[in-house]
Amino acid sequence: MTTKTDYEAVIGLETHVQLKTRSKMFCRCDRDYFDAEPNTHVCAVCLGMPGMLPVINEQAVAFTILTGLALGCEIPQHSKFDRKNYPYPDLLKGYQISQFDQPLCVGGGLDIEVDGEASFVRLERIHLEEDTARLLHRDDGGGGGSGGSGGGQGYSLLDVNRGGVPLMEAVTQPDMHSSAQAVAYLRKLRLILRYLGVSDADMEKGSFRCDANISLRPRGQEELGAKVEVKNMNSFRAIQRALETEIVRQSEILDARDTVAQETRGYIDATGETVSQRSKEEAHDYRYFPEPDLPPLLTEPAVVEELRTQLPELPDAKRARFQEQYRLSTEESRVLTESRRRADTFEETAGHSQPERARAVAHWLIGDVTALLHQVSADAELDQTKLTPAHIAELVDLMEGGTITAASGKEVLAAAFESGEMPAAIVEAQGLGRVDDEGELGGIAAAVIEANPKAVTDYRGGKESAIKFLVGQVMRETRGRSDPNSAADALHAHLDAS
Ligand SMILES: [Zn+2]
Q1: Radius of gyration over alpha carbons of the chain, in Å?
Q2: Closest of 22, 33, 99, 8 to residue 60, by C-alpha
Q3: Is 213 in contact with 14 (CB distance < 8 Å)?
Q4: Contact by Cβ (8 Å): 191, 338
Q5: Nearest residue to 195 via CA among 19, 315, 308, 105
Q6: Å from CA of 170 to ligand 1 middle
Q7: How far apart are CA 174 and CA 13, in angstroms?
Q8: Centre of ligand 1 from the C-alpha of residue 200, in Å
Q9: How many angstroms separate the CA atoms of 22 and 43, rounded?
Q10: Which of 31, 70, 320, 415 has a Cα-to-Cα distance from 399 of 20 to 30 A?
Q11: Contacts of 328 by beta carbon, 8 Å cutoff, 6+ apart
Q12: Model pTM score
């Protein structure tokens, strides 16, 4: 779809992240409700009973500050909680405890890259609040059976397990201009959260949720257009599609010289469309006021510095170090730092082998080992299998040291994956050592020549490709225990002599 005017999209993101604390934000209920029966992780506080007093979860505050430090935010000494008032059945108290004008973290941002083009997405703030209960809409008439008006009367069930779970919200400035940049930002943020260990950041499980604000303006114009908030996107693919759909929809409205309504729209996954939900609220609609049941938060600089010492090496730094220290390519370092565990596995494996073999270790981890892990699950790591860094290192050493060929290496790896036996023992037991005895290889070459007179005639007649066929036959005879170059040498020795 083309538009008559060239517009620039302006995108800001609000990401809600459930924190992986032990208990909920303001009570002692177990935070991990996933897979639990509805309403089994609840108490008087998170059920919003009158007169119950909240208590601040210090781990949630620490996790939020840690995230702020990783993203270069400022941590103001004074912060506080506020009541955000709105009537909705998922809020049992009638208000949500959130942070309004004094969030825990201010500013900061993160570097992203799309198609080799780097940019910086500024953060406005990161604040802490409580998650709401979950409404489960039912449309089946609830066992009423026949009768009824046939008007599809639905009802909603309420599960309060999620209510009161610590929720961290990161709000960006409107610094992104394409759906690809938005997804790059979210992927990077998710990776950092997982490195920090503050959240599973799993979109499917709802522990990483994103709303997007998007407006269009004629290219070159400073002033922002009317802002539309898009909700209900449950995957990176959905976010990409929703933003692209919205850019086309708004372009068409502007092309027709109409005005885009400032509103909230929901994304429908089945059609890829967005539909109007309600006109967008302004902050004053929520009648924010300081939470009277909680004291203001005082964060001493010493506490911030203590948390700073707990920061792990972050993905960008690790990637740069892998390239420098182990001489890996950009792509190899990127793949190996996609999770902290994978990066640790690589370093541990490289540590078992010789320094100059780190690249070979990386190569095997990314290629054949990853293929085997995928048999376990899409995101399996080495420690979920019988393989250990010591296995991989021994295998690489056997190949790099010339004891076995790469073809045999694949076979040994598969066997080790099945049994957990060490590679050297497998090579010994199965007789997979490389055929490097000239006599033995020569004998096999002679037999292959004897058995394939047509290929030999072709070769002598100048058909170079015939040698490849013969090499293949030698490899087959040795079950991959010879390498193609030695096989070719042995064949040539015989062919050129006779
Ligand atoms: Zn509770």
Answers
A1: 31
A2: 22
A3: yes
A4: yes
A5: 315
A6: 24
A7: 8
A8: 21
A9: 15
A10: 320
A11: 322, 336, 358, 359, 362
A12: 0.87
Cα–ligand 1 centroid distance for 128 (angstroms): 17
47 Cα to the center of ligand 1, angstroms: 7
For residue 81, the CA-to-ligand 1 centroid distance in Å is 18
- Whole-number Å distance, alpha carbon 299 to ligand 1 midpoint, is 25
Domains and CATH numbers, the chain: 7-307 (no CATH), 315-430 (no CATH), 438-497 (1.10.10.410)
Cβ neighbours of 11 (radius 10 Å) = 23
Distance (angstroms) between ligand 1 centre and the Cα of 129 equals: 14
Query: Mean pLDDT of residues grouped by 10 in the chain (498 residues)?
Result: 76 98 97 94 94 96 98 98 92 94 98 96 98 88 45 82 97 97 98 98 95 95 93 94 96 94 93 86 83 96 97 97 96 95 96 93 96 91 94 95 90 95 94 80 88 89 86 86 85 80
Three-class secondary structure of residue 33 per DSSP: coil
Q: Max alpha carbon distance in the chain (Å)?
A: 101
Question: Sign of torsion, CA 64 65 69 75?
Answer: positive
DSSP 3-state assignment of 295? Answer: coil
Q: From ligand 1's centre to the CA of 206, what distance in Å?
A: 19
Q: Collect all residues with Cβ–Cβ distance below 8 Å to 198 and sequence separation of at least 6.
A: 17, 19, 20, 63, 64, 66, 67, 168
Q: CA-CA distance, 45 to 56, in Å (whole number)?
A: 12
CA 194 / ligand 1 centre spacing (Å): 26
Q: How far apart are CA 52 and CA 159, in angstroms?
A: 20
